[in-house]
Inverse folding.
C-alpha cells in the first residue's frame, strides 16, 4: 500500500505529514517505556524482518498481490509505540534508498501503514486477549485478528483521504468497495504471517514478546471422572530473580531469516501489482502519478545498477536493505533507550 507521489494534493499531503510527525513524536516518548537493553536490539530486528517480508508479495486474487504491512506484528512483539517507529524506519529506507513510496506521500504512508495499523492492530489484539483469557495460547489468535482487521481499516482510511484530497475524481463508494475487498484478502495473509511469526518467537523466547507480558495460563482442575474445569489462579510469591537470558541466539537467527527472505526468497515473490496499484489502475486514481525523486538511486526498484543478473541484483538489494534497516533502526532504538537510562539515573 505504498502511496506514490502525485496521488494527493498539497493540503492533504502537508496535513498527513504533520500528523505523522506528531505521531512519531508521541511514539518516541512512548517507546521509552517499552524499550530496555534486550528489546532495543529486538526492535531493530523486527524492523529488518518487516522490510524483508514486505519484499514477498503473495497472490490474493487474479492479477493482484499483497504484502505484509507489519504494524500489528511489531506491536505484539515490541509494543505499539515502538511498532510505529519500526514501520516508519522501513518506510524511510524504502522511500530514500529503493524509490518505493513517494517522498511527498511519506506522511500519508507513515500515517496509514505505521500509525493506523499499529494502533488498530494493538487495540484489537488487547480486546481479544481480555475477552478470551487463555494465557499465552491466545496470543497468536489475537495477533491474527488484529492484523486481519488493521489492513482493510488502513485501506478505507486511504479511500477517505483520497476522496478529500486526491488528485483524480473518484466514485468513492466503488473505490471503497474495491479497496476494502482486496485488502480484506491481503489482511488474511497479513494475519497468517503475523500469527506464525508471533508463535515462533513465543515458542522460544516468550519473555521477549511484549504482548505476552503479564499473562499466565489458567489453573485447570481435573476430576476423577475426567472432566476439567478452570479456576482463577492466585498470584504466586515472586520468585528470586533469575539470571537474564541472552537474546543473542534469537537475534542472530532472526537476522539470518531476514537475510534469507530478502536475499533469496524475494526473487520468487508475485510480480502482480499490489492491492493499491491494482485498484488505482482500474479506477483511475493514478492518472496524476509522478515519477519517484529517487529513481536514480543505485538500489531503486529493489535492484542494483551495474549487476546484469536479475536474481543476483534482487538478492543483493534485499540484503542491503536488511542491513540498512538494522543499522538505522538499531541506532534509533538504542538512542531512545540510552536517553531513558540517562533520565532514570538523573532521578536517582
Amino acid at each position: 500500500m505504498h502511496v506514490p507521489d502525485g496521488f494527493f494534493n498539497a493540503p492533504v499531503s502537508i496535513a498527513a505529514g504533520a500528523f505523522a510527525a506528531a505521531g512519531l513524536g508521541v511514539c518516541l516518548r512512548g517507546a521509552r517505556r517499552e524499550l530496555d537493553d534486550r528489546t532495543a536490539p529486538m526492535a531493530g530486528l523486527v524492523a529488518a524482518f518487516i522490510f524483508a517480508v514486505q519484499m514477498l508479495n503473495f497472490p490474493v486474487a487474479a492479477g493482484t498481490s499483497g504484502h505484509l504491512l507489519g504494524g500489528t506484528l511489531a506491536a505484539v512483539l515490541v509494543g505499539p509505540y515502538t511498532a510505529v517507529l519500526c514501520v516508519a524506519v522501513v518506510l524511510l529506507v524504502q522511500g530514500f534508498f529503493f524509490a518505493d513510496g513517494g517522498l511527498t506521500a511519506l506522511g500519508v504512508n507513515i500515517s496509514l501503514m505505521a500509525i493506523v495499523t499499529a494502533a488498530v492492530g494493538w487495540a484489537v489484539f488487547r480486546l481479544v486477549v481480555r475477552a478470551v483469557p487463555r494465557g499465552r495460547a491466545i496470543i497468536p489468535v489475537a495477533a491474527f485478528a488484529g492484523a486481519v482487521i488493521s489492513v482493510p481499516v488502513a485501506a478505507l482510511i486511504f479511500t477517505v483521504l483520497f476522496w478529500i484530497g486526491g488528485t483524480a475524481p473518484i466514485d468513492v463508494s466503488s473505490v471503497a468497495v474495491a479497496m476494502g475487498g482486496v485488502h480484506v484478502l491481503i489482511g488474511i495473509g497479513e494475519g497468517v504471517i503475523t500469527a506464525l511469526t508471533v508463535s515462533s518467537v513465543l515458542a522460544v523466547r516468550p519473555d521477549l514478546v511484549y504482548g505476552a507480558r503479564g499473562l499466565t495460563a489458567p489453573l485447570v482442575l481435573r476430576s476423577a471422572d475426567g472432566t476439567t474445569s478452570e479456576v482463577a489462579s492466585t498470584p504466586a510469591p515472586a520468585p528470586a530473580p533469575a539470571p537474564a537470558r541472552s537474546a543473542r541466539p534469537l537475534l542472530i537467527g532472526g537476522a539470518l531469516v531476514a537475510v534469507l527472505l530478502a536475499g533469496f526468497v524475494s526473487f520468487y515473490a508475485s510480480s502482480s501489482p499490489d492491492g493499491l496499484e491494482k485498484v488505482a489502475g482500474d479506477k483511475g486514481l493514478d492518472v496524476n502519478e509522478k515519477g519517484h525523486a529517487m529513481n536514480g538511486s543505485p538500489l531503486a526498484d529493489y535492484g542494483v545498477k551495474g549487476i546484469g543478473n536479475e536474481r543476483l541484483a534482487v538478492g543483493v538489494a534485499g540484503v542491503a536493505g536488511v542491513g540498512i534497516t538494522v543499522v538505522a533502526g538499531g541506532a534509533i532504538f538504542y538512542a531512545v533507550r540510552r536517553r531513558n537510562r540517562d533520565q532514570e539515573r538523573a532521578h536517582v
Q: What stands out?
A: The radius of gyration is 21 Å.
